[in-house]
Amino acid sequence: xxxxxxxEPRALGALAVxxxxxxxxxxxxxxxxxxxxxxxxxRVTEAAAVQAGGPATPQAGPPGLTPGPxxxxxxxxxxxxxxxxxxxGKVHRPGIQYLPAGSxxxxxxxxxxxxxxxxxxxxLNRARVxxxxxxxxxxxxxxxxxxxxxxxxxxxxxGQAGPAAPVSLGxxxxxxxxxxxxxxxxxxxxxxxxxxxxxxYRSVDELRExxxxxxxxxxxxxxxVRP
Length: 227
Prior knowledge:
About 30% of the residues lie in helices and about 10% in strands. The protein is of the alpha/beta class. The chain has three domains: about 1-30; about 80-160; about 165-225, DNA polymerase, domain 1, CATH 1.10.150. The longest helix is centred in the N-terminal third of the chain and has 24 residues, at about 10-30. Mean pLDDT is about 75; it is low at about 55-75 and about 140-165.
């Protein structure tokens, strides 16, 4: 090349350095531009698994975000595998109870402090599996089975029905008054004492003046009695 181009040895050395540098730059450029495998996002992977017939993996929400009060599972239980039931009537602690999914009526009664002495539970199926949002009423006269069509049909499933006819506040005995939700022997006697002192009941609203009957208990009793 020196003889053909007439280059001096120094110029030939400089040209060689330039060519080597150009080759290094070209190699680095092609190496950085090579294709690399990229992992598909989780949602794309999940969709591909569903299309292939495999199970989809549920995606967790953002950290610190908990499901809202209305979020429920397909089985009717609240998040965390719990159900909410209302236990009323002749139990020690009537009210809302939070139980594990799959609990039975007997579990709800235990959570409510147990059945009060003298309560009639012969028609209450304590082995029945509870469903979220139902009510279990204990100790009412005229027991009836849950509505046909399974749990949840026609509203909340009730363990026992209320009195067949309204209880007369003017003539009811202690035993008859005890059939009302949340009324025990002591409160039943208070109702009769008020009747004796005031010459009877002119309206159901007078029950509010009886010692031991608050707004919640009055709301439960009102549709089941008459003056």
